């Protein structure tokens, strides 16, 4: 962890004069009960009072582990910072004239109570006995119980859940990630979403929200149409407990005493997107992120109630600032305590305008992965009594579902090679926003969330001719489909003119070939070379529906698949994709085969 350097100490001493701070003041000792020092660390929680708004903002620029800031009347007025410091840092700050008040470590105090409950029911080590479904939401799980519940959830829902370890903590505990999808072990051309929680081991409300949402989605899949649509069309990932060592030991930090939410590459202080030399928990999430292309996500915290978005590391606004606000308000509108916040307008804040940090997770996602992620502060208390979790669930359930639904909208499509139909690893620029995203290299799919408006999209890839698409219209909570075929450089067919085609959903779907073939309607605005084929879930072509040697006339066409492979054998039950290439555009539709 960072400590106050001697140069900072000199700087702070100068503040006594330049900012008119009072002489060194030590607050009267508080009755704080148990030792407030965090496990694996020499730090403890304090409140730091500043006598002017300028002094407060100056504090935020220092290398102290800040937790939250309360502006009494706004950022131009004096306020209080909650932070975690050691004795040396405290002495330096007090010498510079800041008033330091040591406060109870409420998270640690609650953890000690919970730890005794775990011991009493024999829950510290596997095997453990999980509660019946009716008694599930009654107490904080131990780590062993959490692992048992996640494994039982995966065992009970093999067609919906994939459970993996993204790596192990300092002390060797697995960091579990669960994917919910209608094809959980197969990557599909679908947008990806991520909820993670408890990178600070004593901030646990989000962990419980993730666990409840995992159960909620599996319980209601196939029953609730909106839940079924979400799971069928989005690859949803959960990491309920990012810092298991911190959770087991009741501390903010990992077992090396490091705040992992200050350990990520940072655009300002550490512009090096390299996991080497970082904490294991940080490295594992980074490598997990490299393997995925998330459209949207949220990492859950406690100690405040607000949705926080980039930048944390600089006061500038991102190109997606207004979009961040729109998505945040979609969440907070459904969460009354956030929407009605008296501290944050409608329950959201631009990170640095609350307080500046470096090495935060959300800035790494945005800068290097080009993804939209929030820091979601869900409870003012870091480790609340479990009796409050039903209330937090009722406040966050609909909001979490709404946030996941967001990735069903925006501009979506597949970028493919115009000759082979294979996915292209392309960059996508929206001229009006100034931010570049990438396609998923496995499928060539992408999803760009945007506020309503009209945009210009530019597609580029190494070895391909660029494609520009003008007048792409985005409307509120609707999907605009934009599929693009890219022509290799030097190809004798030249650069194709963009053709906007329309392909209907397949009918019937699901299909049983014994009862008839599946049909799709294709509208061509002009004559084009048309290729159509059927692909299995692994991306292998099993049937050709239309060769592209001759021009296909403009107008409406019907594509028919009788459920057979190219060899004439019946295709087995499962998921298939009908992919169409028309000139410079590619479209795909999913078909469920039932025999």
Walk me through the structure:
- By secondary structure, this protein is of the alpha+beta class.
- It folds into four domains: 6-104, no CATH class; 108-408, Aminopeptidase, CATH 3.40.630.10; 410-486, Carboxypeptidase-like, regulatory domain (Immunoglobulin-like, Sandwich); 502-593, Immunoglobulin-like (Sandwich).
- The protein has 14 helices and 28 strands.
- An eight-stranded mixed beta sheet has the order 5-6-8-7-9-12-10-11, sandwiched between helices. Strands 23, 24, 25, 27 and 28 form a five-stranded antiparallel beta sheet that branches.
- A hairpin with a 7-residue loop joins strand 2 and strand 3.
Keywords, separated by commas or semicolons:
14 helices, 28 strands, Immunoglobulin-like, 25% helix, disordered N terminus, five-stranded antiparallel β-sheet, 595 residues, 4 domains, eight-stranded mixed β-sheet, globular, alpha+beta, Aminopeptidase
């Amino acid at each position: 962890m960072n400590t106050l350097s001697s140069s900072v100490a000199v700087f702070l001493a100068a503040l006594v004069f330049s900012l008119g701070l009072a002489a060194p003041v030590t607050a009267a000792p508080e009755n704080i009960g148990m030792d407030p020092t965090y496990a694996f660390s020499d730090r403890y929680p304090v409140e730091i009072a500043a006598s002017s708004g300028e002094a407060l903002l100056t504090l935020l620029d220092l290398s102290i582990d800040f937790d939250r800031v309360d502006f009494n009347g706004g950022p131009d007025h004096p306020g209080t910072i909650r932070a975690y410091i050691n004795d040396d840092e405290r002495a330096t700050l007090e010498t510079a004239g800041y008033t330091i008040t040591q406060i109870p470590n409420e998270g640690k105090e609650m953890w000690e109570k919970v730890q005794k409950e775990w011991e009493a029911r024999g829950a510290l080590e596997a095997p453990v006995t999980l509660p019946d479904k009716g008694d599930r939401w009654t107490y904080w799980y131990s780590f062993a119980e959490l692992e048992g519940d996640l494994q039982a959830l995966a065992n009970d829902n093999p067609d919906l859940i994939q459970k993996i370890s993204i790596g192990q903590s300092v002390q060797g505990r697995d960091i579990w990630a669960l994917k919910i999808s209608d094809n959980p072990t197969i990557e599909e051309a679908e947008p990806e979403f991520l909820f993670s929680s408890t990178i600070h081991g004593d901030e646990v409300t989000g962990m419980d929200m993730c666990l409840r949402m995992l159960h909620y989605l599996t319980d209601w899949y196939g029953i609730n149409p909106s839940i079924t649509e979400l799971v069928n069309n989005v690859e949803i990932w959960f990491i309920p407990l990012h810092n298991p060592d911190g959770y087991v030991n009741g501390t903010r930090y990992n077992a090396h005493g490091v705040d992992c939410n200050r350990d990520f590459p940072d655009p300002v202080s550490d512009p090096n997107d390299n996991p080497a030399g970082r904490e294991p928990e940080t490295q594992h999430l980074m490598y997990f992120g490299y393997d995925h292309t998330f459209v949207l996500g949220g990492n859950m915290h406690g100690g405040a109630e607000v949705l926080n978005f980039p930048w944390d590391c600089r006061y500038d606004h991102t190109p997606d600032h207004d979009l961040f606000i729109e998505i945040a308000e979609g969440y907070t509108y459904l969460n009354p305590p956030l929407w009605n916040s008296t501290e944050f307008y409608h329950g959201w804040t631009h990170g640095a305008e609350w307080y500046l940090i470096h090495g935060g997770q959300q800035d790494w996602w945005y800068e290097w992965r080009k993804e939209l992620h929030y820091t979601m502060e869900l409870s003012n208390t870091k480790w609340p009594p479990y009796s409050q979790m039903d209330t937090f669930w009722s406040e966050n359930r609909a909001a979490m579902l709404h946030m996941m639904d967001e990735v069903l909208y925006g501009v979506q499509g597949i970028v493919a090679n115009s000759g082979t139909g294979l996915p292209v690893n392309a960059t996508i620029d929206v001229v009006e926003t100034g931010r570049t995203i990438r396609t998923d290299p496995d499928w060539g799919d992408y999803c760009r969330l945007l506020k309503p408006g009209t945009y210009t999209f530019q597609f580029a890839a190494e070895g391909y001719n660029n494609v520009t698409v003008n007048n792409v219209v985005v409307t509120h909570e609707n999907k605009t489909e934009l599929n693009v075929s890219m022509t290799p450089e030097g190809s004798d067919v030249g650069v194709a003119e963009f053709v906007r085609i329309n392909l209907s959903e397949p009918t019937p779907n699901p299909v049983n070939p014994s009862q008839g073939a599946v049909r799709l309607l294709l509208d061509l605005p002009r004559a084009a070379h048309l290729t159509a084929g059927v692909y299995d879930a692994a991306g292998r072509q099993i049937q050709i529906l239309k060769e592209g040697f001759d021009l296909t006339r403009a107008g409406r066409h019907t594509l028919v698949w009788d459920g057979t492979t190219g060899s004439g054998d019946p295709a087995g039950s499962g998921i298939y994709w009908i992919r169409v290439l028309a000139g410079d555009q590619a479209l795909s539709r999913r078909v469920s085969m039932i025999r």
